[in-house]
Amino acid sequence: MTGVTDIAHNAAREAAHEAARIPKQRGDLLLDSAVRYAEERHWDVFPGSWLEAVDGAERCSCERSDCPAPGAHPTRPDWSTQATGSGVAARRLWSKQPRSSILLPTGRTFDALDVPESAGFLALARMERMAMTLGPVTRTPERRMLFFVLPGGSLKVDDLVRKLGWSASAIDLVARGEGHYVAAPPTRVGGYGAVQWARRPTPANRWLPDAEELISPLAYACGQDAATARAART
After folding, report:
1. Which residues pair with 196 in a beta bridge?
2. 160 near 168, Cβ under 8 Å?
3. pLDDT score of 27
4. Nearest 10 degrees: CA dihedral of 100, 105, 108, 111?
């Protein structure tokens, strides 16, 4: 198990290094990506905050010095009503502010299972060996991985994890459904790097898996990751 964990940690370090090499975010990439998500995947999209250069440093457009997600959060409280699945509307929104982050509301066309990156790599490797059906998966600069599943899946997660002998909160497995959102590539978060695809959206993964199909390998990987972290602290 130590060898598998080391592989996952090495992959995570390589991913972080790769993210650090990403060039400065361009507005045309954001606009084109937002339109593509709406038109090709039929995902609702809405523009979030963006990064601004101030005194040689990047700052969130919200101007909060303690912003928890610089350049990657909603700019208005009614963000859910702003989300659109129209490519034409998305083009209009991002034309107004081309640097806006791309945010996707969960609970509509998909939910997301949010896990630590190291656990996500372990689970992803296991799922691929088992030839499991997977949807898109993102990797964030905060070292998290998000697995897209059918909408409604987030409501089942606590019970499913409990039946496997864990608590979702104890193993850091977070379900994002209605009322939540995720940042989509190529959104950049502060000076940390960009959200990237660990598994890109393709015609082959247009049909998403149910949360129940992924929960066992995800919970197992999160449980192992949590145990490793506890052992390192003692």
Report:
1. 139
2. no
3. 63
4. 130
Per-residue confidence (pLDDT) for residue 192, from 0 to 100: 82
**Are the beta carbons of 83 and 140 closer than 8 angstroms?**
no
Asked if 178 contacts 106 with a C-beta cutoff of 8 angstroms, the reply is yes
Q: What is the pTM of this model?
A: 0.86
Q: Give the model's confidence band at 97: pLDDT under 50 very low, under 70 low, under 90 confident, else very high.
A: very high
CA dihedral 87, 89, 95, 96 (to 10 degrees): -160
Given a contact cutoff of 8 angstroms between Cβ atoms, the answer to whether 138 and 182 are in contact is: yes
Per-residue CA distances from 218 to 10, 111, 115, 118, 166 (Å): 19, 15, 8, 11, 11
pLDDT, tens digit, for every residue of 18-35? 333 333 445 679 999 999
Round to whole Å and give the CA distance between 72 and 147: 19
